[in-house]
Amino acid sequence: MTPLINGINYASTNITFIIPIIGAVIGITEINYEAAKAIDDNYSLEADPTSRAYGQNTYKADVTMYKDVWNRIIDASPQRNPSLLPFFDIVIVFGGAGVQIRKEVLRAVNFKNNPMAVKGGDTKLLCKIELAIGGIDY
Q1: Residue 56: beta bridge partners?
Q2: Closest to 133 in 3D by CA, of 60, 68, 72
Q3: Tens of pLDDT along 77-105?
Q4: What is this structure's pTM?
Q5: 23: which residues sit within 8 A by CB, 6+ positions away?
């Protein structure tokens, strides 16, 4: 077998996360997003589906970042409230040495919450922010 037949894979170090009000963000520890379509089988008196219905698209997303990065977003927000920012796009760029550059865009984003949790012994403060998104360009 040929070693490294698939070459180099994307890794977390190959991701650039860009938010328009502060630019490229350093201090993101986790990004989660997904698109889903409601798909339901329709039944009549038979045991198997008679047809299939395709419904709405839904989107979920969240991002976890260090508290000092979140504070920069808060400070750049109207009335220091990130949920008051107008819709914006978040650009996520996958790229680096040996991998093909790829861009994915979270469209019409709003921040949904302003979280903070800390417990004794924590050596880093992280905030997990839920995002409302209107679509994803892959």
Answers
A1: none
A2: 60
A3: 999 999 999 999 999 998 877 778 899 99
A4: 0.85
A5: none
